[in-house]
Amino acid sequence: MIAYKGIHHVSLVVRDLERSVAFYKKVLGLQEIERPPFDFKGAWLAIADGGQQLHLIVHEGQTLRDGAIDSRDGHFAIRVGSYKDTRAWLDEQGIAYDARPHAKAGFPQIYILDPDHNIIELNADFCDE
């Protein structure tokens, strides 16, 4: 049996590193952290204080999507403190989203796209709207 401690990081492929770093820092409030000197462009960002990270990797291959928000496509989820405040922040930032306050999952969900159409789910413990 494997004794898990949690998710360390999620890696996403991006086309324009500077644009993506700006999005994750400005829209989601993640903090850029030190990254080893790999032989390819990328950036690491911290998600909260628990050691979880998002790794952005520049890649020009066919792994990138161009479609709209599709919650059944590959994505990662970040738990937020307030569903209502998150929606208000996304509105203020002009970010399009798919809001599901009474999702079948049993907790409210918001789906957004980053600049490279990577899907991000923001969810909360309960709907505070």
TrEMBL record:
Query: Origin organism of this chain?
Result: Paenibacillus agricola
Where are the coiled-coil regions?
none
InterPro entries tied to this protein: Glyas_Bleomycin-R_OHBP_Dase, Glyas_Fos-R_dOase_dom, Glyoxalase_1_CS, VOC_core
Protein name (record)? Glyoxalase
Alphabetically ordered keywords of this record: Metal-binding
Q: Known Gene3D superfamilies for this protein?
A: 2,3-Dihydroxybiphenyl 1,2-Dioxygenase, domain 1 (3.10.180.10)
Where does the record place the VOC domain?
6-125
